[in-house]
Design a protein that fits this description.
single chain; 332 residues; alpha/beta; Rossmann fold; 2 domains; nine-stranded mixed beta sheet; 34% helix; globular
Amino acid sequence: MKMRTLPVLATGIIIATASLLVVAQSPDKEKQKPKTWPEKAAARFGDTPLPDQKALIESNLPKATVEPGKERRILCFWRCEGFIHTSIPFCNYAVQKTAESTGAYKVDLADEYSVFTSKNLEKYDAVLFNNTTNLVPNEEQQKAILDFVNGGKGIIGFHAAADNFKKWEEGVAMIGGVFNGHPWTSKGTWAFKLDDPDHPLNAAFRGNGFWHKDEIYWYKPESFQGRERLRVLLSLDMTKPRNHDPLKNEKFKKQIEEGQPMDVPVSWIRTIGEGRLFFTNLGHNDSTFWNQTVLQHMLDGMQYAMGDLTAEAVPSSGLNKEAALAPAEAPE
């Protein structure tokens, strides 16, 4: 009998010992998990972009379309309270190198809400929200941002800038809408059409629709400002079957049945008071920031937002524009 109980006792000892080890190790693991924003950013980004990636960005920098009317300065804000995109440091690097190579602006990077004061914002011509998510500026900071753009300055948003301000209705309206999923994932190559082929901010595409690998959002219908308020520059080319494939998913079918529009704008501009907004949903993938054509589109939008590049911002609704569709097939 005693011999039979020994294995059981041994097993029990092993289990108990293992449990004690788990309990002992758990606090250490919890301590190691990033908690603060600087810790999360360091863990997510590491040393990126790497030297070869920096070289790719530097070899594909855009050219300034117009000379700045005066010395310009952009505040590039890159904090996240939600999902953290790996492309953030790639964008920061591209924005810095574009500033150096073109002279179109100077740039300060920031990730603390304390920069959003009326006094501090006085020295900037535009605020760029670089893939920021779930930002929660307080009421004073919200007012500073709105006064900034209404007073004649610029707001620029890349990709996840539309996954922000969910408790701040005016902030959502300022950008143009808020995230409602991304059927078109970062691993897919999607077709895009130029809604306004002759618009100055679409000059980089030379009048042609195109294919591009990136993640594309659609927006909560109740939040999206629509073509009645926005000048839509790019949108998904929904004449292409590949763009419809993700919508076969039951989740997305249900959203369409519940009123999610099939119209999927991607880049747009608008006036806000005396100021200007440029937003593009491009920018999820790291590689987007060494795509020269997209970088040119972004720089032109930035120069518009800063007030140097003149462009018509009359809303798209009612305009008789023939879109330039993407080629029938994606390039190999």
